[in-house]
Amino acid sequence: MCGRYALNISGEDLAIEFAAGVKDAAFTPSNWNISPTTVIPFISSDDAKGEERSINTARWGLIPSWAKDASRQANAINARVESIAEKPTFKSAFKSRRCLIPVTGYYEWATELGKYKPKQPFYISHKDKQSLAIAGLYETWINPATNSPITTAAIITREAAGIVAPIHHRMPVILPKDLWSTWIGNKSLSSDEMNDYLKLINLNQPDEALTFWPVSDEVNNARNIGPQLAQEIALPESGTLF
Questions:
Q1: Sign of the alpha-carbon dihedral angle for 141, 146, 148, 153
Q2: Among 141, 168, 165, which residue's Cα sits nearest to residue 153?
């Protein structure tokens, strides 16, 4: 899963990096500990080719349009790629509302299945210090109490592979630049096309641009948002199982 991430980029630089106009830049551009329900930026497109892009904002934690209340939001921060084409919470968004969620890096906590001490946090980022473009979904929900629209989003995850697999069994679906336009194109997918898109984002080496290092457990507290959270720490000998 992915439950915390960092974004350290201005709205202007984000627009340049993703060749996108700014529709709604009301987000905090430097937060090293973004947690569920935080307002986050995402990149979407209004044209079928995905070339006319815009930056919008959403609350992290997708609420399906048919939900009666917002209680599902905190539980839908991640959408498993294996089930987005069938699960009611995500199927409609996958069909018509796909996006990119930019991150500077993300955090993952070691599980008992890997080589590291369980619950040890790690910071995972691009080895060349570029932003990562995570495949996402977004949805608009109408609050029945106020009749006002709320845009929410979820990060798509997959089975972990390569260098990050020893940390955790899940990882975000990170898309290379040559897939951005296809993924966010404003096109409603048929059942066959949905299968094609699932194959498209099933990359053979999803970890090839990644690097990681252990960080302090200060990241466990969502009130901590500074850059020190992503600083590498030394693990004691007991920090690994092997």
A1: negative
A2: 141
As a whole number of angstroms, the longest Cα–Cα distance in the chain is 56
Q: Assess whether 86 carries a catalytic annotation.
A: no
Q: How many domains does the chain have?
A: 1
Virtual torsion, Cα 54, 129, 211, 18, nearest 10 deg: 10
* 108 classed as catalytic: yes
* DSSP symbol at 87: -
Q: DSSP characters for 193-239? A: HHHHHHHHT--S-TTTTEEEEE--GGGGSTT--SGGGGS--PPPGGG
Amino acid at 216: S
Over residues 80-131, the pLDDT tens digits come to: 999 999 999 999 999 999 999 999 999 999 987 667 888 999 999 999 999 9
Query: What DSSP assignment string belongs to 111-157?
Result: -TTSSB-TT-EEEEEETTSPPEEEEEEEEEEEETTTTEEEEEEEEEE
Q: Say which of 51, 108, 218, 237 is annotated catalytic.
A: 108
Q: What is the CATH number of the domain that holds 111?
A: 3.90.1680.10
Predicted TM-score of the model (pTM): 0.93
Tokens 């466990």, residue located: 220
In this predicted model, what pLDDT tens digit does every residue of 221-234 receive, in sequence order? 999 999 999 999 99
Nearest to 195 by CA among 85, 110, 70: 85
* Nearest of 199, 198, 168 to residue 87 by alpha carbon: 198
* Residue 141 contacts residue 149 (beta carbons within 8 Å): yes
